[in-house]
Amino acid sequence: MLFYFSIMDDIFKLKEENERLKEELARTHAELAILYEISNAMRTTLKLDEILYIILTGVTAHVGLGFNRAMIFLVNEKEGLIEGKMGIGPDTGEEANKIWTKIQQEQMDLDDLIAVFKTSEKIPDSKFNQSVKSIKINIKDKKNYLLSIAAQDGMLLHLTKETINEYTHDPLVQILKTDELVIVPLKAKDEVNGIIVADNIFTRKPISKDNIRRLIMLSNQAGLAIENSQLYEQTVIRAHTDSLTGLWNHGYFQYLLQQEIKKAMEQNSVLSLIMIDIDDFKMYNDNMGHQTGDYILKELANLLNNHSRKIDWVCRYGGEEFAIILPKTNKKEAILISEQLREKIQDFPFIYEEIMPAKKITVSCGVASYPEDGTTNSALISCADKYLYEAKKQGKNQTYSG
Predict the structure, then answer these.
(1) Residue 10: Cβ within 10 Å count
(2) What is the pTM of this model?
(3) Which of 106, 138, 150, 317 is deepest in the core (most CB within 10 A)?
(4) Confidence category of residue 44, pLDDT binned at 50, 70, 90
(5) Helix or strand run (H / E) with residue 22
(6) What string of DSSP letters covers 231-265?
(7) What's the domain count of the chain?
(8) If you average pLDDT over every residue of the chain, what do you get?
(9) pLDDT value at residue 87
(10) H or E segment at 54?
């Protein structure tokens, strides 16, 4: 009889173990399916913003890893910084419930959530996203910053209610105002190129070992996807950049202008174009040689780039002529911008400029605007060029706009 009960007990334990293994297998299968779906989504694009959005959607979606909020920071080796690039997550608990209810009601899967971004080409500029993008940390400052520790050591950090109080001075903790978070470095070829931070601020659900394990598995793919995207962007930039000045080249200028005109049409907005030409530059080249002339072109390109707005496109049109596309800018605003740039150039101490007729290197500018001066690339360029040469006729070193 004892032998019988012993056998039955063993059978019962085997059944329990079998059920446990089945559950574990089902959970592993579900995890792999989620990661496979996210990985496939990352392979559909090489655009960095889309890659970052896909990664963060995978981290935050209920059909993904299910964190309440997530953000990505990228390592800027050139400037020695860790920079906030994108954050996805509601600003309030009420907003969180609305979003989650809508996703559930509409039965949105990962592809649906990603499609929202790809069709709009931007995420809602929430306070949370703005806060993330405002963070810039010195990569070497391990003493004070969690992100620097993660980037330099390449180690995962899990801050719990018990340990987070040690970092109340940290800008990340101050912005997130959470009592638990996980920080996971992203790597490519054993080098940290980014960091994911995630938390559950609204549900207050503890971050488990399984949550962290899945996040690590995702991060292994995310680091490589980011590196591939950055390499692609570098290749695109090189292909469209003027080798002498580092500005966008003529071909890409034509493409950019076409795209901005298209946006202006769709949004019923305006844009302006400034054409800029160095006055009497042939005289400078003839006297000082083309090598010194090239140096002037590079100096001028830097001036234009450094004193233009972030939304503007500064391009080298050809020779000593430059072009600046100003989105959402009317003619009056463009004239003010053109004059500010012209004065900056006039006041800059260029080398050997005393040989010039005005004893200074100066520029003439022509300003044309969409839609009043033209609705196509060729019409706007032709008009801005015509105004530029009118500025030359009227004495040079000035802006003309019709």
Answers:
(1) 10
(2) 0.67
(3) 150
(4) confident
(5) helix 2-42
(6) HHHHHHHHHTB-TTT-SB-HHHHHHHHHHHHHHHH
(7) 2
(8) 86
(9) 93
(10) helix 48-60
CA dihedral 94, 97, 99, 102 (to 10 degrees): -130
**Last-in-domain residue among 238, 265, 281:** 238
Enumerate long-range contacts of 46-51, CB under 8 Å, 24 or more apart. 46/228, 46/229, 46/232, 46/233, 47/229, 48/226, 48/229, 48/230, 48/233, 49/86, 49/121, 50/117, 50/118, 51/225, 51/226, 51/229
* One-letter amino acid of 335: I
Q: Is residue 245 part of a domain?
A: no
Q: What is the mean pLDDT of residues 378-386?
A: 96
Q: What angle do CA 235, 273, 317 make, to 5 degrees?
A: 50
169, 144 Cβ separation under 8 angstroms:
yes
The verdict on 118 and 229 lying in the same domain is yes
Q: Is the peptide bond before 371 cis (omega within 30 degrees of 0)?
A: yes
What whole-number distance in Å separates Cα of residue 160 and Cα of residue 155? 16
Q: Which two tokens stand for residue 310?
A: 């972030």
Task: Check which CATH number belongs to the domain holding 61 and give it.
Answer: 3.30.450.40
**Measured between alpha carbons, how far is 272 from 331 in angstroms, rounded to an integer?**
6
Closest CA relative to residue 23, chosen from 260, 277, 210 = 210
Does 282 have pLDDT greater than 90? yes
Residues of the domain holding 216: 2-238
Tell whether 244 is covered by a domain.
no
Task: Tell me the chain's radius of gyration from C-alpha atoms.
Answer: 28
- 184 φ, ψ (degrees, to nearest 5): -125, 120
Burial class (CB in 10 A: 0-12, 13-18, 19+), 280: middle
Task: Tell the residue number behind the tokens 């390109």, with chain if given.
Answer: 301
pLDDT at position 27, please? 55
Q: Which of 193, 190, 178, 184 is nearest to 214 (CA)?
A: 184
Residue 255 contacts by C-beta under 8 Å, 6 or more apart in sequence? none
The string of pLDDT tens digits covering residues 169-185 is 898 998 899 999 999 99
Residue 272 lies in a domain: yes
Rama region for 170: left / alpha / beta (φ>0; ψ in -120 to 50; rest):
beta
